[in-house]
Every structure is written in C-alpha cells, then in structure tokens.
User: What shape does this take?
Amino acid sequence: MNDASPDASANARFSTRIFSGIQPSGGLTLGNYLGALKRFVEKQDEGIEAIYCLVDMHAITVWQEPARLRHATREAAAGFIAAGIDPERSILFNQSQVSAHAELAWIFNCVARMGWMNRMTQFKDKAGKDKEAASLGLYAYPALMAADILAYHATHVPVGEDQRQHLELTRDIAIKFNHDYGVDFFPVTEPLIEGAATRVMSLRDGTKKMSKSDPSDMSRINLTDDADAIAQKFRKARTDPDPLPDTLEALEGRPEARNLVNIYAALDGTSPQEVLVAFAGQGFGSFKPKLAELAVESLAPITAEMSRLMQDPAEIDALLGRGAERAEAIAAPILEQCFEIVGMVRSRRR
Ligand code: AQP
Assistant: This one.
C-alpha cells in the first residue's frame, strides 16, 4: 500500500478496506485470474479487510440468459474459493443480495455528470457502433461501480488496467458528493493496479483485452479449461516468427509476444525482464509448451477444486447468503447516513 500518496492523509480517518468485484458474465478467464483474483488472495493474505463481490447487476447491463447467469455466479464463487479466498476471513457475496448497491447508485446517478459518463471508453467499446441500442444500465455502469465501492467506505480497489478510468470516476463522484454536501463522508478510493499482468491480452489479437465475452473461445484461457485445451490454445496463440529478445524494448511493436511473456512472468511470480533473460534467443516453438506447462501447473488445482465445489450448489448459495448478511451489516448504516446527508426523511428505521 502506498502510504506516501497524496490521498493517504485525506483518507486517514477511514480504516484500510479493500473492495473489488468480478462480473459473472461468463466463465472466469486467465485475465480475471491474473489481473484480479490472484491479487485478491495476496491482499487477503496480507491481512487486509476485504470485501469481494460477484457483480450480477453489472452483468445484466448486457443480455444474460438467466440460467447461465445463475450458473456463472455460482461458478465464479467456486473460482474465488478455489483460488484461495477464505469466505470466513474475507466477505464474498453477490451484489443483488445487498440492496445498498442499487440505492446508493441512484444517489450517484444524480451526482455524476453526463459529460463524465460520455468520456467512459468501456461504454464506447461495449456499446459498439449502435449506441442507441445499448441499455441505460450499460451507460450508468460506472455510477453503480462507485456505489459498490463507496457503500463500504472502501479505501483501496485492486483491479486490472481496464478499470482505471472507472476508478477515477469513483474518486470524482466521492469528491463531488463531499463538496456539494459540505461533508467528509466518502473516502477518495485508490486503485491498486500492480503486477506483470494488469492487462492480459487476447491470444488471437495482442491489441485486444482477453475477455470472457469474446466470441472466440480460442482467444482466452478459461479457469475451467483442462490441460489439453490450455496447451492447444497456447500452441495456436497468434505470435510472430522472431525469437524472443533479451530486452523489453526489443518487444516493442510485438504485442502478442509481449503478452505471452507477461503471462509467463505473472504465473511464475517473476518479472517480464527475468523471463526474457531465461528465454532470450528461443522461438515460440519452444517457449509456448513451457508456458502451457506453467499455466497447467498453476491452474489445474484451481480447476479441480472449482469442479468439486460445483457439486454442491446449495452450499455455495448458503455461503453467498452469509457473505451478503455481513456485507449488508457494513453498508446499511453508511447508506442511512448518506440519505440523512442528502436530506431524505428517514422515519422508518431498518
Ligand atoms: N484481460 C484482463 N487482464 C487483466 N485484468 C483483467 N480483468 C478483466 N479482464 C482482464 C480484471 O478482472 C476484474 C473483473 O473484471 P469484470 O469481469 O468485472 O469485467 P471486465 O473487465 O469487463 O472483464 P471481461 O472478462 O472483459 O468481462 P466481459 O467480457 O463480460 O466484459 C477487474 O478487476 C478487471 O480489471
């Protein structure tokens, strides 16, 4: 944690608390694992209070088939636990079970400005050419994300690089709310974007993010993929004919090569430069099988445990329910105070 940052003193009255979420909009990918999940586990193991949320209300900003959404939510919960999240130490739940998220999002819809939302690149990417057909929820997504975080007065949010702009918006919303109402109520949350794989790219196109909703399954490694599928996907991953160089500068303009090096480093807990030192001069014919082997070694125990946990969906639901109760106990008083600040009459106490 960077206590020397300018916001550390501004947030001094808030105790350190992490919040982060993942959309159950499909199966978890290696991008979700390296950019988020693996780091969630590290933060938990540092002893930091952490709240992790399967953001099902975010997921439905684009169409989700209901049975698939339910399955993906349970499977993501299983993925969190299999990767090392301890639901006793950290809070793990799904967003729709805690109404504070939606309620605070409405307040933030009235704080955020249209101009701010119009600049969100994720909306532009996801809405594509036909913006008129995108859901209002997709447009308002960043205000709901701000509510997810600020409903818990979270001070830090571990995320991948793609979420940086939304985190900046969360900070803008907190600052504007505090300023408009003359309070020091919401912390100015800090993003934690760290590690060698803050942006894992598609295996088919090194300029595109690896994504669970990419139509091509060959573009991503799923946490449910078996060893053969992982080996095949890395074998067929797009690369160039040149061998690996010995410096990172020499990887400029080779996004696919850079991506595979980053993935290796993140899985191995080393740096991309160290990977190049080990593999300089080798072509992808020899690097890819070693990468596949490392990925299988890291992911196979998680995949096996996920599949074991998925045998008992009722237990997963119970666990999410217990997490939601603990989350609600933190968010409800914060929401009440927020309504008071805004001037809502609150005569029916919960
Ligand atoms: N490719 C990635 N590299 C590094 N981090 C990533 N994350 C997602 N993809 C990568 C991080 O995972 C967390 C959860 O993301 P999300 O599921 O809420 O939404 P997303 O970023 O939109 O992920 P997807 O896979 O691309 O989902 P779809 O396809 O449904 O839009 C975040 O911390 C994110 O940074």
Remarks:
- Residues 21-23, 25-26, 29, 31-32, 35-36, 159-160, 162-163, 197-200, 209-213 surround adenosine-5'-tetraphosphate (CB under 6 Å).
- The longest strand covers residues 17-22.
- The domain at 217-308 is CATH 1.10.240.10 (Tyrosyl-Transfer RNA Synthetase).
- The chain has two domains: 17-192+312-342, 217-308.
